[in-house]
Amino acid sequence: MKKVAVLFGGNSDEKEVSLHTGLAVIEAIKQDYEIVSINMGGEYSDLYKKLIDVDVVFIALHGGYGEDGRLQKYLDKHSIQYTGSGSLASSIAMDKNKTKIIAKKHNVPVIEWEMINKNSNSINTKLEYPLIIKPNDGGSTIGIYYVENINKLKSSVSSAFSYSDNLMIEKYIKGREISVPILDNQILPLIEILPSGFIYDYDSKYKANGSKYIVPAKINDKLVRLISEAALSVYKAIGCRHYARVDFLLDNNEYFLLEINTLPGLTSTSLIPKSANHVGLSYRKLVKSIIKLAE
Asked: Is the same domain home to 166 and 267?
């Protein structure tokens, strides 16, 4: 029986989500593999000692060092096989600004944006209100703010800096949230997200009745093809592997890339499992498929 180490927890703002993902993964495959369960903290310099005889590491971390390429680089250094994208792709995808620049080079539409960092002398923007403020390197929609005027901009930027030193200011577009799951370079059914709140924030994602989901998304075949091609184009351009989720905003017939998640949530109720289930791929089979891709 092969040995799989499941890494979860970590020290990012998404720790709670990671715990749910890790425990769900362990429960799904505990009959198929010998499991090494590792609840991570802030330090991992001696992690390799726990992984010496492990066949594959399943990274169930979200955000922080688990998703920004640092852990992946560490595992590469010790020649340890792991699930998800490599260090460079992980690093790029975690940086929303870099992701947008790459998307534009590949003719994938993006929403107008500007960057601001903690050392900026002033807080202003050339973009028209309303706006969205969000951490450039965050996930799970933590630290996101809707801004209607200059006064709200200043207070929101100040609050958002508690999550990241670099913020993205985006023009707000009221549209439909469309998510594109990718597994082994194949597009799974698209998902439309219907948040109960004004924006698809942390509560909408993870609290009971926070959102409703339509699988497959009810959009015309041409748009499905165009959005799917755009998602795969960004996925390949960044160098992702195994699986990911690419999020878009749809405004009538115009679509815009929001971000790409190289380690999206994998609880039994997360988006990729919902999509996979629609094509007959159970949660257990999905997890096992990801592990096989890493072997």
From this structure: no
